[in-house]
């Protein structure tokens, strides 16, 4: 897999160098811009996978840069994380409403920033994967049938009712047979950041799903437990 290229736009040199050092250490390619104009020029002429964008930029501020990224058909899908010294809720809401994918206030934790960057990049990759997977109308295995468009589940011809979260969880696992998901990743993908750490939520939903689709939920055939880590779907 090729390295992801991250564009950092900030007028503070020490912030740019801090980001460069840590992101390159994490395996990313990094391109720097010290102004909104320079950043927009790079975005239009280079292949960029994600942008770390400071809000308080001279001449063209971060929100205007974000607006231009989102209104350009060629760049509108690039993930953007806003970086700012401001922490007022108004700024956060405004940035997100204008299309920012995430928001982090200075001073920030490098580990948190890397985690958020990884998450937005993964969402883009997952969307690309979904485009391919959505060409498949249903998943069928060992009597279990999952209708991806109809959002229906049946076992040996018997329809099973699923809650929204149960269906999304089953669908994610079934679309990726054999791939092991940690509880935290499942929480992030199905429930979002606010549930991170509440891994019992995943266990409860898996238990409910098993009761509905497994002949013997104490000896599951479809959703396997990976002890001490998470879950995976059977591989045919």
Topology summary:
Layout: E1 5-9, H1 13-25, E2 29-33, H2 36-45, E3 50-54, H3 62-71, E4 80-84, H4 89-97, E5 102-105, H5 110-133, E6 138-141, E7 144-147, E8 152-155, E9 158-160, H6 164-174, E10 181-182, H7 183-191, H8 200-213, E11 223-226, E12 230-233
Parallel strand pairs: 1-2, 1-3, 3-4, 4-5
Antiparallel strand pairs: 6-7, 7-8, 8-9, 10-12, 11-12
Helix pairs in contact: 2-3, 6-8
Entry summary:
With 236 residues, this protein is an alpha/beta fold.
The tally of strands reads: 12
Kindly state the percentage of residues in helix. 40-55%
Shape: elongated
Radius of gyration: 21 Å
State the strand order across the main sheet: 2-1-3-4-5
Largest sheet: 5 strands, parallel
Order of helices and strands: EHEHEHEHEHEEEEHEHHEE
- Which band does the percent of strand residues land in? 15-25%
How many helices? The count is 8
Strand-pairing-aware structural class: alpha/beta
Low-confidence runs: none
Walk me through the structure.
This is Stage 0 sporulation protein A homolog. One of its GO terms (cellular component) is cytosol. It comes from Candidatus Fimicola merdigallinarum. The chain has eight helices and twelve strands. It has 236 residues and is α/β, with parallel strands linked by helices. The strands form three sheets. The protein has a five-stranded parallel beta sheet with strand order 2-1-3-4-5, sandwiched between helices. Strands 6-7-8-9 form a four-stranded antiparallel beta sheet, with helices on one face. The two termini are 26 Å apart. The mean pLDDT is 87.
């Amino acid at each position: 897999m090729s390295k992801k290229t991250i564009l950092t736009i900030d007028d503070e040199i020490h912030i740019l160098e801090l980001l460069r050092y840590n992101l390159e250490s994490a395996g990313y390619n990094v391109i720097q811009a010290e102004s909104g104009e320079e950043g927009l020029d790079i975005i239009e002429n280079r292949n960029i996978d994600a942008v770390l964008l400071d809000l308080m930029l001279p001449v063209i501020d971060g929100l205007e840069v974000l607006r231009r990224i989102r209104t350009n058909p060629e760049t509108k899908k690039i993930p953007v994380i806003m970086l700012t010294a401001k922490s007022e809720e108004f700024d956060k809401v405004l940035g997100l409403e204008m299309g920012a994918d995430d928001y982090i206030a200075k001073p920030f934790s490098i580990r948190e920033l890397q985690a958020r960057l990884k998450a937005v990049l993964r969402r883009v990759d997952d969307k690309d994967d979904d485009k391919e997977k959505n060409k498949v109308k249903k998943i069928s295995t060992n009597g279990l049938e999952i209708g991806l468009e109809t959002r229906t589940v049946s076992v040996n011809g018997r329809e099973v009712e699923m809650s929204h979260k149960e269906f999304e969880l089953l669908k994610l696992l079934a679309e990726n047979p054999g791939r092991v998901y940690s509880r935290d990743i499942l929480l992030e993908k199905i429930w979002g950041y606010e549930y991170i750490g509440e891994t019992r939520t995943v266990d409860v939903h898996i238990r409910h799903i098993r009761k509905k689709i497994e002949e013997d939920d104490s000896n599951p055939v479809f959703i396997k437990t990976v002890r001490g880590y998470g879950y995976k779907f059977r591989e045919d």
